[in-house]
Structure formats: structure tokens, C-alpha cells
Design goal:
Low-confidence stretches: none
Pfam families: Peptidase_C26
Number of helices: 6
CATH class: Alpha Beta
Helix content: 25-40%
Organism: Streptomyces canus
Distance between the termini: 19 Å
Strand content: 15-25%
CATH topology: Rossmann fold
Shape: globular
Mean pLDDT: 95
Largest sheet: 9 strands, mixed
Structural class: alpha/beta
CATH superfamily: Class I glutamine amidotransferase (GATase) domain
Order of helices and strands: EEEHEHEHEHEEHEEEEEH
GO molecular function: gamma-glutamyl-gamma-aminobutyrate hydrolase activity
Number of domains: 1
GO cellular component, one term: cytosol
Oligomer: single chain
Protein name: Peptidase C26
CATH architecture: 3-Layer(aba) Sandwich
Strand order of the largest sheet: 4-1-5-6-13-12-11-8-9
């Protein structure tokens, strides 16, 4: 069987020891989760042109985690001093890729930064910092509640899940048409969807790849993406 091609935008990294210089990379656990699900993960170069044309050759898109979006992308006049790893080209490409995938009806799974990218692409805003180590969700595993009858619920088959998080920002104002599909106990938006989406789409604020190798609930997200990319009804 031919594996569906899953585009995974590379993350621009200032250093990478194995490559000696600046690099474009993707997290190994993320790539392995797509592979286990039966997909062919393809790292793609961030560029500021021809995004829709480039994505049209793929069967699905996975928008991964990464650094923060530049606050001006969602209309903020100031930048909080905790904002990190902003890259203009990365922002442009990810935002274009999110819009293109939704326009094309390309199956789309968005993770952490990916969720924030989709929210901003649809006119939403972000809270630039959740309030420091006691309030953010870095290096934490915590429970989330999943909305019944959502695409996310259909994918993971659960209304409660323990998830691995690493983020200090969260959704403030929802983008146009988005609905909340998962929340943490503190009210943080942990999942969003677009009911009018042309193709399969769900986004989570946590990192399912962290535990997908041992947790079928988390691996199920990648399996749903790949099945949808293969043309199956999910």
C-alpha cells in the first residue's frame, strides 16, 4: 500500500549539532508518530511563495509546534518579554499553509503552535504569556475534557485524556468560525475545530507526539489524519 504523503513544515533552528550550522528540522517523535500511523512524513521547506500549489501535491498537512508567532501577526502593539524564537519566514509560511489547507480541504492536524497559527490565520488573537511558571503549561501533563460529537472526540475516542503540554501562550479571541473542542481545568483552550471546514481538521494545544508511542489515545490523532489523507471517512 502506498503511504499517504503528509507534509510537515520544517522548523527553522539557529543551531543543530549534527549539522554544525543553522538547520531546518522536525521533532523525531512527531515524524515517528506519523510513520506508525501509516503515513509518509515529508518535511517541507518554509518559503513565502507558491504555498497552495506546493501543498496541493500532498494528501495531508501536519502543522507542528515551535516558537512563538510575532505578536504583530494578530494585531498586538507590544511584545511580551517572554516571546521567543520568532522567525518572520516561518510565520509567513505557516499562516499561508494553514489558510491553503483549509481552502483546499486538505486533511489538517495542527499541534500546539499549529493550533495558534490556525487561530491567527482566521483572525483570532493570542494571550502572549499565561503568567509564569505557576500558570503556564510547560513540562506538564494534565487532564483535558473533550467535547462530545467533535472531530477530536471521534479521533481519540475519549471525553477525558491526560495530555503532555509545553506552551506559555494560549488562545485569547477565537478565529472566525472556530469552536472549542477541548479545555483544561483552568479554562485554557486545548482544542479547536472549524465546523464548516471542507476537509478533516482538528487542532490541539498539547503535544500528542510526546506520549503517542505508549498512549493509544494520542496515537489515534495521527491515525485519524493519515486515514483521512488516504480518503477514508474518519
Amino acid at each position: 500500500m502506498t503511504r499517504p504523503l503528509i507534509a510537515v513544515p520544517a522548523r527553522i533552528s539557529a543551531t543543530a549539532s549534527a549539522l554544525r550550522f543553522a538547520a531546518e528540522a522536525n521533532a523525531r517523535m512527531l515524524i515517528e508518530a506519523v510513520w506508525r500511523a501509516g503515513g509518509e512524513p515529508v518535511s517541507i521547506h518554509p518559503a513565502d511563495t507558491e504555498t497552495a500549489t506546493r501543498l496541493a501535491r500532498f494528501d495531508g498537512l501536519l502543522l507542528p509546534g515551535g516558537g512563538d508567532l510575532a505578536p504583530h501577526r494578530y494585531g498586538a502593539a507590544d511584545t511580551h518579554d517572554t516571546v521567543y524564537d520568532v522567525d518572520g519566514l516561518q510565520d509567513t509560511f505557516d499562516l499561508d499553509a494553514a489558510r491553503a489547507a483549509l481552502d483546499l480541504g486538505l486533511p489538517l492536524l495542527a499541534i500546539c503552535r499549529g493550533l495558534q497559527v490556525v487561530n491567527v490565520a482566521l483572525g483570532g488573537t493570542l494571550e502572549q504569556d499565561m503568567g509564569g511558571p505557576e500558570s503556564d503549561h510547560r513540562h506538564r501533563v494534565h487532564p483535558v475534557t473533550v467535547k462530545p460529537d467533535s472531530t477530536l472526540n471521534s479521533a481519540v475516542g475519549a471525553e477525558k485524556a491526560d495530555v503532555s503540554c509545553y506552551h506559555h501562550q494560549r488562545v485569547d479571541r477565537l478565529g472566525a468560525g472556530l469552536t472549542i473542542t477541548a479545555t483544561a481545568a483552568d479554562g485554557t483552550v486545548e482544542g479547536v475545530e472549524l465546523p464548516c471546514s471542507r476537509g478533516w481538521f482538528t487542532a490541539v494545544q498539547w503535544h500528542p507526539e510526546d506520549t503517542a508511542h505508549a498512549d493509544p489515545v494520542q496515537q489515534a490523532l495521527f491515525e485519524a489524519l493519515v486515514r483521512s489523507a488516504a480518503g477514508e471517512t474518519v
